[in-house]
Design brief:
Layout (H helix, E strand, L loop, with lengths): L6 H14 L11 E2 L5 E2 L4 H5 L5 E6 L6 H15 L4 E5 L6 H13 L4 E4 L4 H13 L4 E4 L11 E4 L2 H16 L7 E5 L5 H16 L4 E6 L4 H14 L5 E4 L2 H14 L5 E6 L2 H9 L4 E6 L4 H13 L15 E3 L4 E3 L13
Protein name: Substrate-binding domain-containing protein
Family: Belongs to the bacterial solute-binding protein 2 family.
InterPro entries: Peripla_BP_I, SBP_2_dom
Length: 348
């Protein structure tokens, strides 16, 4: 690895190890004995950081028509650039599964060493991913899962259900036993499984403290959609105690609707972790008091994993040799008290 990395890149690349590390290792060597003489098999992060054989990684993701997706793409590029033994081949972002299948086939024909793939449609890309795996090219699946376990060597996911749980838990804590509270929810696109998972986690967490969702509307992950949905919600509910908005990009429209309505009797939390949301939380001058992260570093983690897999390395600082087949990243809540720990990872 190059000797200098930006703070952002260091944070990106620690995501994989932080997600999977169990904190059990001591010492500095790849195999050997700890201070009690016990043998271990894992490698350390320092060993994995050392340059190895150059590997070529193909990356394909959807069109960057949302701030989060833009951060996914730039994160993959930043991660690859931080290694002096990685060459990244990036396909043009697309929302057309046929075009993405063609990109994967091109990677296979080019005989890349690994493929990192955030599919525009997991089911539609499954067969292409299986073909790559059958050609001996490991595929790292990011964010949207394939429909077969044979389509990927490793999968890196955000935790949509966990986002809902984190949001509900935070709201329960802030309302502190107020069982008659009016809790509202502004979801994303209701037909998407990720929205359904977020809503289910939210409802389950609220139920645990004796609350439920009193009012709910769905938007479409856009600023205009957020403003329209929030206006509808506010008009139908003259009193609200707390709002969870699933997505910080659509949250710009939500906050505009709240300002237009002159409402401030409630607090709001967002979702995904945009820079605009974190700056508003830091300023503490609006109803937005928190957001829950859906990591935009997943493709960066995928590139880091692809490098390790292609170089036959193990994941640093865990006891069990090899690379985990499935990594689910955390969904932490960001507040004014801890925003400084997360703002460098925020997406624009």
């Amino acid at each position: 690895m190059r000797s200098r990395m930006t703070a952002r890149t260091r944070l990106i690349l620690t995501g994989v190890a932080a997600a999977a590390s169990v904190g059990l290792l001591v010492g500095c060597t790849g195999t050997g004995a700890d201070e009690n003489g016990a043998e271990r098999q894992g490698t350390t992060s320092e060993e994995n950081a050392a340059s190895g054989d150059t590997v070529t990684i193909g990356f394909s993701g959807p069109a960057a028509d949302h701030g989060w997706l833009g951060a996914i793409n730039s994160g993959a590029a930043d991660a690859a650039a931080s290694f002096d033994d990685v060459e990244l081949k990036t396909a043009e972002g697309t929302n057309d599964p046929i075009a993405q299948i063609a990109a994967v086939e091109t990677f296979v024909n080019d005989k890349v060493d690994a493929i990192v793939l955030l599919p525009t449609d997991g089911a539609a890309l499954t067969e292409a991913a299986i073909a790559a795996m059958n050609a001996g090219i490991p595929v790292i699946n990011v964010d949207r899962e394939f429909s077969s376990p044979f389509a990927a060597r490793a999968t890196v996911l955000g935790d949509n259900y966990g986002m809902g749980v984190s949001a509900g838990t935070y709201i329960c804590e802030q309302l502190d036993g107020k069982t008659d509270a009016v809790v509202a929810e502004i979801a994303g696109i209701d037909s998407l499984p990720l929205t359904q998972d977020r809503s289910q986690g939210f409802a389950d967490a609220l139920k645990d403290c004796g609350l439920d969702v009193s009012a709910r509307v769905a938007a479409d992950f856009t600023v205009a959609g957020g403003e329209s949905a929030a206006s509808q919600l506010l008009s139908a509910n003259p009193k609200i105690d707390a709002i969870w908005n699933h997505d910080d990009d659509q949250g710009i429209g939500v906050l505009a609707a709240i300002a237009s309505a002159g409402r401030d009797e409630f607090f709001m939390m967002g979702g995904a972790g945009s820079k605009a949301a974190m700056e508003a939380i830091e300023a503490d001058d609006s109803v937005l008091k928190a957001t829950v992260i859906y990591p935009s570093t997943q493709a960066a983690d995928g590139v880091a994993l692809a490098r390790l897999i292609a170089q036959s390395k193990t994941l640093g600082d865990i006891v069990t040799p090899g690379i985990p087949n499935r990594i689910v990243l955390d969904a932490p809540v960001v507040t004014k008290e801890n925003v400084d720990q997360y703002i460098d990872l925020a997406f624009e």
